[in-house]
Specification:
It is built from 11 helices and 12 strands. β3 and β4 form a beta hairpin. It is of the alpha+beta class and 388 residues long. The strands form 2 sheets. Strands 1, 2, 3, 4, 5, 6, 7 and 12 form an 8-stranded mixed beta sheet that branches. A 4-stranded antiparallel beta sheet has the order 9-10-8-11. α6 crosses α8 and α8 runs antiparallel to α9. The protein has 2 domains: 203 residues, Ribosomal Protein S5, domain 2 (2-Layer Sandwich), CATH 3.30.230; 167 residues, 2-Layer Sandwich (Alpha-Beta Plaits). It binds alpha-D-galactopyranose.
Length: 388
């Protein structure tokens, strides 16, 4: 549990709102992606981990069929009748929790006989930093409703429901990575996920034993998946796959890139090259971690950033500055993480260098007149769970 609040506090918030104690408390974490960016919707590989920042949801039964949700991040609760659940029935922040209820039904769960619930959400996952605050809400609500209503869905099915809520209710065309990390993560481990088969390997990271820390550098540059370049990148990838005659870019190898370059326009080719080389970097980083330990993955992180900056073109000057300053101060490796166009970078740093790296990043931002970034350490934490 994060040190900002605990299950008792979330339960207290529920009681304050609804005037009775909740029946249960669940939570789910945000995530950091170590490597494998914009590969998930291309049926490729990703290697994220769940972080020690969580969204907590307290739940209480109702005797009608209304779903009501309140939170610490919005003044007013939002209600919807179970019969009225539909992609356009809710908007704003409530689309995440209530969209999940719709998505569970859409995935085949029988909600005809369940009773409504009151939900209260609290979170310490920073919003808009690329750390999947949205997936944390979706997954906390998904595990809570799944258990409370006795739906019996497994974690991959819950991940798909969270993604469906995000795609259809929130309207962001995102992949399956964030929800998978939030649901499958474990302490001190990364989730190596094949986004085609959804086979997941939970791999010990060993950062602490190796004296390493993952620093998050939140640039405070806002990113907007639904309206930003994310959808355009996804469309380029699909166009590239079509032009190359494959189902998805997962089916293109590094050795096929020369042919791809001859067949595609320059921009589409560079989008394709990012995805194809990034898939290979995930495989190489995981193998290197297993064979040579965590300090060996640095060069793959660095190369991933260059590919996102130059080929996929989803970085911004603040992210490049964060990465370069961290590398210059001795980070083992650094890259932007998440969808891009803002948000956060990560740096893998030896314990002893954390103050230097932090200071160098701050100084580099100040020298360029950028807004002061927030720099903090994250640890790989347990995925979604019941807390009370
Ligand atoms: C966002 C999306 C994910 C993934 C990343 C990029 O976080 O939600 O599905 O596509 O961007 O790797």
């Amino acid at each position: 549990m994060s040190d900002r609040f605990d299950a008792a506090e979330a339960a207290g918030g529920f009681t304050e709102y609804y005037g009775r104690a909740p029946g249960g408390v669940w939570s789910a974490p945000g995530r950091v992606n170590l490597i494998g960016e914009h590969t998930d919707y291309n049926d490729g590989f990703v290697f994220p981990f769940a972080i020690d920042r969580r969204t907590v949801v307290a739940l209480g039964d109702r005797d009608d069929q209304v779903l009501r949700v309140s939170s610490t991040f919005a003044p007013d609760p939002v209600s919807v009748h179970l019969d009225d659940l539909a992609p356009d029935a809710v908007s704003g922040w409530a689309a995440y929790p209530l969209g999940v209820a719709w998505a569970l039904r859409e995935s085949g769960a029988d909600l005809a006989h369940v009773r409504g619930v009151d939900l209260h959400l609290a979170s310490d996952v920073p919003i808009g930093a690329g750390l999947s605050s949205s997936a944390a809400i979706e997954c906390a609500v998904a595990v809570a409703l799944n258990e409370h209503w006795g739906l019996g869905l497994d974690r991959p099915a819950l991940a798909k429901a969270g993604q469906l809520a995000e795609n259809r209710v929130v309207g962001a065309p995102t992949g399956i990575m964030d929800q998978s990390a939030s649901l499958l993560g474990e302490a001190d481990a990364g989730v190596f996920l094949d986004c085609r088969s959804l086979d997941a390997d939970v791999i010990p990271l060993g950062f602490r034993d190796a004296g390493l820390v993952v620093l998050v550098i939140d640039t405070h540059v806002s990113h907007a998946h639904a309206t930003g370049g994310y959808a355009a990148r996804r469309a380029s990838c699909e166009a590239g796959a079509r032009a190359l005659g494959v189902d998805s870019l997962r089916d293109v190898r590094v050795a096929d890139l020369a042919r791809a370059e001859a067949e595609l326009d320059d921009e589409t080719f560079r989008r394709v090259r990012h995805v194809v080389t990034e898939n290979q970097r995930v495989l190489d980083a995981v193998r290197s971690l297993r064979e040579h330990g965590p300090a060996s993955i640095g060069p793959f992180l660095d190369a991933s950033h260059v590919s996102m900056r130059d080929d996929f073109e989803i970085s911004v000057p603040e992210l490049d500055t964060a990465v370069e300053a961290a590398q210059g101060a001795g980070a083992v490796g650094a890259r932007m993480t998440g969808g891009g166009f803002g948000g956060a970078a990560i740096a893998l740093v030896a314990d002893a260098l954390v103050p230097d790296v932090t200071e160098s990043v701050r100084a580099a931002f100040a020298a360029r007149g950028f807004r002061e970034p927030t720099v903090f350490a994250v640890a790989a934490a347990q995925g979604a769970r019941r807390d009370g």
